[in-house]
Amino acid sequence: MRGYRSRVTFQEGGSFGGGRVRKGGGGKAVAGGGAVGLLVLVIYLFTGADLSGVTGAGGGEPQVEGTVGECTAEQANTDRECRLSGTIDSLDTYWGAAIPAAGGQFSEPGVFAFTDTVSTACGNATSATGPFYCPPDTTIYLDLTFFDQLTQLGAEDGPLAEQYVIAHEYGHHIQNITGVMDEANRQGTGAESDSVRVELQADCYAGMWAGTAATTVDPDTGVAYLDPITPAQLQNALAAAAAVGDDNIQEQSGGGVNPDSWTHGSSEQRQRWFTTGYEQRTLEACDTFATDQL
């Protein structure tokens, strides 16, 4: 029972309406394993990039086969589709209040859980691409089997680790609707590049959400979304952030660490900026473009 309780995230009594998360996908595709699959992750993991150059010209609409139905909190604690739905519900509520409070206009992103392959306004993608946000169609795409791959990079299995990934992608949507995506030069690389700043800011935004999710109340049920986050759960999220650091991925792929090629930041940076958002919980604290200390 102790181990089970350490994995519980959503507060008992909560529920999440269906229809928010679409799902579907294309035919079977070779996702790529080992070094090939890892190479794709190195390039595209967690980014709001145009995928057409590598993954195929594409540019169409995803093939929708249905939506995730209504889920209880108990289901969201054990089922990945329901966990995705509940996390998105929580993110909608949090950012739907935070952005207008900061003087901005908020709109919800689309969310699509795909299997094997998907066609998007950014191009065609496969499961090996990893989760990504597509600015032209303002949609988050992810294959839920990615979370099994995440553990291969050194992350610990746990619900908050998965939610960190989802919240990071949602952070890219916040950057899109607030103009950061348009203003940043996301084509460059290097430890001080705009590409790294964009990714670290999305990590910080994920931390902002996590730091408030246990006190953010679902307006439909009157129940806070998450139970208070335990140290073990927080460690799961930090381990996921470390796993997708550029230096860790470069080491896992068998090459040397080369900061000049970084696009997402080191493991230490990703953990630190998530923690900054988690502890300080302000957009100002997450302004990675206003600091020389990345």
Please, could you describe this protein's structure?
The N and C termini lie far apart (41 Å). The chain has one domain. With 294 residues, it is an alpha/beta fold. A five-stranded mixed β-sheet has the order 3-2-5-9-8, covered by helices on one side. 44% of the residues lie in helices and 11% in strands. Strand 6 and strand 7 (123-126) form a beta hairpin. It has twelve helices and nine strands. The protein has helices spanning 2-7, 34-44, 52-55, 73-76, 80-101, 146-152, 159-177, 180-183, 194-212, 231-243, 246-252, 267-280; strands at 15-16, 22-24, 64-67, 71-72, 110-114, 117-120, 123-126, 132-134, 139-142.
Record the SSE blueprint.
Layout: H1 2-7, E1 15-16, E2 22-24, H2 34-44, H3 52-55, E3 64-67, E4 71-72, H4 73-76, H5 80-101, E5 110-114, E6 117-120, E7 123-126, E8 132-134, E9 139-142, H6 146-152, H7 159-177, H8 180-183, H9 194-212, H10 231-243, H11 246-252, H12 267-280
Parallel strand pairs: 2-5, 5-9
Antiparallel strand pairs: 1-4, 2-3, 6-7, 8-9
Please outline what is shown here.
The protein has helices at residues 2-7, 34-44, 52-55, 73-76, 80-101, 146-152, 159-177, 180-183, 194-212, 231-243, 246-252, 267-280; strands spanning 15-16, 22-24, 64-67, 71-72, 110-114, 117-120, 123-126, 132-134, 139-142.
